[in-house]
Write a structure and sequence with these properties.
- There is one protein chain.
- The protein has a domain of 242 residues: Amidase signature (AS) domain (Amidase signature (AS) enzymes, Alpha-Beta Complex).
- It is 38% helix and 13% strand.
- The chain contains 16 helices and 13 strands.
- The longest helix is centred in the C-terminal third of the chain and has 25 residues.
Length: 511
């Protein structure tokens, strides 16, 4: 039997923080109720590792901080959870792979450090596609996480467990990573909100790498204001990460930057009264509304665009002509980087080692074939091929050229046509688990609306905007894309829409 966590009785992080500081409840009580709910909904398979003692120790530490009153850090006692690609001390970090089964890191990822410093209480590690490679969480070595709106449906991937935990009310927020849409897509399919910030604004240190030029951490939560509460403190320059940015449009990359931009945008909106988004130009790409888009998703996105127009925004038709090319471009570049990043798992230094082998070469071969799942092996093979002698120029180098063209398409739109871009996140609502088992690459096509953003390194988010057909009413997400370093504006625009609608407040019925 499931248990309703105490934190679900509040409207979000701000309300829960006020209750904790007023000592209406303790961080230990909040954490204990969440842990019992996780046990009660274990069938969703959202969590891969829970350690009650570790969580309650963090909660007790948060209660000590809360006793200090206003001096307590902003997230003291707030229950969150981490995708299982963020290394953590105490909790296992497996990247949902047999290759790292049982691994416990000697250090924390920077994102984990920052949230712990802000007082957040970790509930454990969340399920995901193996090494973050997938779009449905079906590639986890420990079984798929299940969509709380329909346990027979995928939750999206690769951050599927993160979206499930938030949608099912098991955590207030969760961390995820987005390489080609892996925060936005599961958020859309589970009816919650998620944001991928500009590449380089959040440290990648301590995140198990998939595609190094694409991976970016981002939070998943129920609504935009809770995303702000998590994203702002984890943003900042990290000298341990060679891809970390020191400055964002000449502003220091540090906590407070995104919140300041959000507050500025909200003040501007408030000054406009009943038309808070007056003057906001929304670019709508023609390529996002092609024959591959299902009618139910098209209808929900169209209704959302009309809602934005009612708030004063102006719709502008734009073109992103290389949208379809983002699929082959991504699936050359990302596997190439994965092939390089995963070469370290050889059975020698760490990771799974085969029990039987005759020599070093066979040990490495068997260890990798036993430790990696089929999707990871598939992408390693693709990546190794495109980087091999004779094919590097024809595939990898050409894909990098197309990537630059995709960046230019977005910049042309932002420079003269629009302030934000909106459209669908996925062509369809969530498919059933195992639906594409006979065609494992078909899921790659479902990333068509998210890949270009990742290739360009732009910030983007997903917010709930409706449900599918009545006989199978699954959540649908709206994608909002911004120019570089515009996370504050995106969150403010999304927040204004969520003040007008209640899609983000709807919750699945759980046994």
């Amino acid at each position: 039997m499931s248990h309703t966590p105490l934190h679900t009785e509040f409207g979000g992080i701000a309300a829960l923080r006020d209750a904790l500081r007023a000592r209406k409840l303790s961080a230990r009580e909040v954490a204990d109720s969440a842990l019992r709910a996780i046990d009660g909904l274990a069938g969703l398979n959202a969590f891969l590792h829970v350690d009650r003692d570790l969580t309650l120790a963090q909660a007790d530490a948060a209660d000590q901080l809360l006793a200090a009153g206003e001096a307590a850090p902003p997230l003291a006692g707030i229950p969150i959870a981490h995708k299982d690609v963020f290394v953590t001390t105490g909790w296992r970090t497996t990247a949902a792979s047999k290759m790292l089964d049982g691994y416990v890191s000697p250090f924390n990822a920077t994102v984990v450090e920052h949230l712990a410093a802000a007082g957040a209480v970790s509930l454990g590690k969340l399920n995901c596609d193996e090494f973050a490679m997938g779009s449905g969480n079906e590639n986890s070595a420990f079984g798929p996480a299940r969509n709380p709106w329909d346990p027979q449906a995928v939750p999206g991937g690769s951050s599927g467990g993160s979206a499930v935990a938030v949608a099912a009310g098991l955590a207030v927020a969760a961390t995820g990573t987005d390489t080609g849409g892996s925060v936005r897509q599961p958020a859309a399919l589970c009816g919650v909100s998620g944001i991928k910030p500009t590449y380089g604004t959040v440290s990648r240190y301590g995140i198990i790498a998939y595609g190094s030029s694409l991976d970016q951490a981002g939070p998943i939560a129920r609504h935009a204001r809770d995303l702000l509460e998590i994203l702002d403190p984890i943003s900042g320059f990290d000298p341990r990460d060679s891809t970390s940015l020191q400055f964002c449009d000449e502003q220091p990359n540090a906590p407070g930057r995104i919140r300041a931009a959000f507050d500025q945008a909200v003040r501007r909106q408030d000054a406009l009264g009943s038309q808070p988004l007056k003057g906001l130009r929304i670019g709508v790409p023609a390529e996002f509304f092609n024959e591959g888009l299902s009618p139910e998703v098209a209808s929900a996105v169209e209704a959302a665009l009309r809602a934005f127009e009612s708030l004063g925004a102006v719709r502008v038709g734009i073109s992103l002509p290389r949208t379809e090319l983002s699929i082959p471009t991504y699936y050359v570049i990302a596997p190439a980087e994965a092939s390089s990043n995963l070469s370290r798992y050889d059975g020698v230094r760490y990771g799974h080692r085969a029990a039987q082998y005759r020599d070093l070469a066979e040990m490495t071969s068997r260890s990798r074939s036993e430790g990696f799942g089929p999707e990871v092996l598939r992408r390693i093979m693709v990546g190794t091929y495109v980087l091999s002698h004779g094919y590097y120029d024809a595939y990898y180098l050409q894909a990098q050229r197309v990537r630059r063209m995709i960046v230019n398409d977005f910049q042309q739109a932002f420079s003269s046509q629009c302030d934000v871009i909106m459209g669908p996140v996925t062509p369809n609502p969530a498919k059933r688990i195992g639906e594409n088992r006979d065609d494992p690459t078909s899921d790659w096509l479902a990333d068509i609306y998210t890949l270009g953003v990742s290739l360009a390194g732009l910030p983007a988010m997903s917010i709930p905007c409706g449900f599918g057909r009545p006989e199978r009413p699954l959540p649908i997400g709206l994608q909002i894309i911004g120019n570089y370093f515009s996370e504050g504006l995106l969150l403010a625009v999304a927040d204004r829409y969520q003040q007008l609608t209640d899609w983000h407040q709807r919750k699945p019925e759980l046994a």
